[in-house]
Amino acid sequence: MSKTIMAFDFGTKSIGSAIGQEITATASPLKAFQAKDGIPNWDDIEKQIKEWQPDLLVVGLPTDLYGEDLETITPKARKFANRLHGRFGLQVELHDERLSTTEARATIFEQGGYRALKKGHVDCQSAVVILQSWFEYH
C-alpha cells in the first residue's frame, strides 16, 4: 500500500511543506507556515495534517556541505521534528537537505523567472526537493 508523506523545510522564519505519494515518488508544494524563531502556529500545521492524513513526516535536516550540524539551525530542526512526533504521534524521519534551497531556487527561476522567487515559494519548493530526495534514497 502506498504511503502519503508530508515533508517540511524547516526555517526559523518560515517552514515550507510538500506532500507526496510513495507509489508515484512525486511531490507537490503545499504552503509555507510563518514561524517565530522556528516555532510555527501548531494549529495551522495540525489543519494541514488532518486534511492530508500523511503516514509519515519528513523534516529536512540542515547541515553544512560536509554533513556536519550547523550550530544554530540544526538543533532547532531536530526539536521541530521531535515536536511534530510528540504532538501528532506520527513517525518522523530527518533527511539531509544539503543544497535543497539552491536547487529549489533554480527550479522556480526556470518556471517563473525572478519574480517567482518569493520566500514562501522557495520554502515549499525546498520541501518538494527534500521529499523527492527522500524518495530517491528509499
Could you walk me through the main structural features you see in this protein, from its secondary elements to its overall organization?
The protein is an alpha/beta fold. The chain has one domain: 2-Layer Sandwich (Nucleotidyltransferase, domain 5), CATH 3.30.420. The chain contains 4 helices and 6 strands. The radius of gyration is 14 Å and the shape is globular.
Biggest sheet layout:
6 strands, mixed
CATH topology tier name: Nucleotidyltransferase, domain 5
CATH superfamily: YqgF/RNase H-like domain
Element order, helices and strands? EEEEHEHEHH
Shape: globular
What's the number of domains?
A: 1
Number of strands: 6
Mean pLDDT: 84
N- to C-terminal distance: 15 Å
As a percent range, the share of strand residues is 25-35%
Helix content: 40-55%
CATH class: Alpha Beta
CATH architecture: 2-Layer Sandwich
Please state the CA-atom Rg, rounded to the nearest Å: 14 Å
What is the structural class? alpha/beta
Unreliable stretches covering 5 or more consecutive residues: none
Strand order of the largest sheet: 4-3-2-1-5-6
Number of helices: 4
Quick overview:
Residues 3-104 form the YqgF/RNase H-like domain. The chain has 138 residues and is of the alpha/beta class.
List keywords for this structure.
138 residues, alpha/beta, Nucleotidyltransferase, domain 5, 4 helices, globular, Putative pre-16S rRNA nuclease, nuclease activity
